[in-house]
Design brief:
With about 260 residues, the protein is mainly α. It has helices at about 1-45, 45-65, 75-90, 95-115, 125-140, 145-170, 170-185, 190, 195-215, 225-260. It has two domains: about 20-115, Four Helix Bundle (Hemerythrin (Met), subunit A); about 120-225.
Length: about 260
């Protein structure tokens, strides 16, 4: 009986840890839903309402102590900058509608990148981004300089939407390589290269871009919660094993005593 009580005491001691981890997850689930609501309102061009929802997000972020749950300064920087950017563009009525929506999408993807444990939303933008890059390559193959500038602008706008999320979910060396590629594309030196050299560099860039989508560093489950589950399970198993061993040993001693009698 005493051993069973010990098992229950261990579970009770671990219960607050499990509850805290679950609470963190529920808090980010709420923030994720709020950011999605803001995006849906923006898509429907209800910008004032979207702005109110983003303001509400700030209040809930503080209320839920979400900052303490972030894994790095990069995550905090990404969520702060994209939130401010979304708010700023929503209030800028002179900006194109598409640009205002894109900023809210960028923020929404960052929240999801922090909250999600696998298949972040930004990774679903692989197809349009890779297509935009293919169009860029085609303008170089055809030697269309003006079309190249237009395609480059479109591609950069597409990648800019996912860039903050990429830096949360992808190993730094892959994200940094794409940054270097994008900077090179925009330099006068790139335009002065021969067509063959330009195509060679573009093919290398395409591989680097593909690698970003192939190296999303997301686990199948939240690492903190998984650690708690493993630890709890291990302790319970060890306790049950110990109880079983003591019981077996007691019965063996009992049988030995009977045999001696």
């Amino acid at each position: 009986m005493r051993r069973i009580s010990l098992l229950f005491m261990i579970i009770i001691c671990l219960f607050p840890i499990i509850t805290y981890a679950a609470s963190d997850q529920a808090g980010w689930e709420k923030l994720d839903q709020i950011s999605d609501t803001a995006l849906q309102l923006a898509k429907n061009e209800r910008f004032e309402e979207a702005k109110e929802v983003l303001t509400y997000f700030s209040k809930e972020f503080l209320k839920l102590h979400a900052r303490e749950q972030l894994k790095s300064a990069d995550e905090l920087r990404a969520i702060t900058i994209t939130h401010e950017g979304a708010l700023k563009t929503l209030t800028a009525s002179t900006l194109p509608t598409e640009e205002r929506i894109d900023k809210v999408i960028q923020f929404r993807l960052v929240v999801d990148a922090i909250h999600s444990t696998h298949q972040p939303l930004w990774s679903e933008m692989k197809e349009p981004i890779m297509e935009a890059f293919q169009q860029l390559k085609q303008t170089v193959e055809r030697g269309e300089q003006q079309a190249f500038e237009t395609s480059l602008h479109q591609f950069l706008n597409q990648y800019e939407i996912i860039e903050p999320s990429v830096k949360i979910d992808v190993e730094p060396e892959w994200a940094k390589q794409v940054d270097i590629d994008l900077q090179r594309l925009q330099t006068p030196q790139f335009r002065q290269l021969s067509q063959d050299e330009q195509m060679k560099q573009l093919n290398d860039m395409e591989q680097h871009l593909q690698a970003v989508f192939d190296h999303v560093k997301k686990d199948e489950a939240d690492s903190s919660l998984l650690w708690v589950m493993i630890s709890t399970g291990s302790i319970i198993i060890l306790t049950l094993t110990y109880v079983g061993w003591r019981k077996y040993r007691g019965e063996k001693e009992k049988n030995r005593t009977h045999e001696q009698e």
